[in-house]
Amino acid sequence: MCICMKEEIKDNYLEKIPLRVGTKYPNISKKYFDSINKNTTIIKLNGSVELAPLTGLSDVIVDIVESGRTLKENGLVVVKEIHNLSARLIVNNASIKTKYDEIYKVVSGLRSKVGE
Q1: What whole-number distance in Å separates Cα of residue 93 and Cα of residue 111?
Q2: C-alpha dihedral over 36, 58, 50, 115, to 10 degrees?
């Protein structure tokens, strides 16, 4: 999970008071900016969060970044990683015994994607 913004303001974004933050994750964003004593206005967004800085709705965004391709396509850069995220697949004991074939297909599909 990263703070992202337009390339041209990345060096002095913390000077903006209050900083307008567009995000799908308002609680995580608020907690982070509170931890660094930064006055922010958190704007809860849905959909393409990357458009918020381009339209002037926010100064920065906080979003999950995987490859960074969407950011580059919209002229944004990552300036700070605030959380390292990972995915987990959890299967309960009863399901692994009763639905092994179905679960194995899902696990095999995920393994092939991760290997790409």
Answers
A1: 20
A2: 10
Q: How far is residue 35's CA from residue 30's CA, in Å, rounded to a whole number?
A: 8
User: In sequence order, which ranges of the chain are alpha helices (DSSP H)?
Assistant: 26-35, 51-55, 69-73, 93-98, 100-115
Residues with Cβ within 8 Å of 6's Cβ and at least 6 positions away in sequence, in order, are 53, 54, 75, 76, 77
65 within 8 A of 85, measured Cβ to Cβ: no
Which residue positions in the chain have pLDDT lower than 50? none
**4 and 82 in contact (C-beta within 8 Å)?**
no
Q: Residue 108 in 3-state DSSP?
A: helix
Give the pLDDT of residue 116: 57
Q: How many helices (H) and strands (E) does the chain have?
A: 5, 5
Q: Which of 34, 83, 43 is nearest to 61 (CA)?
A: 43
Q: 């990357």: which residue's tokens? A: 50
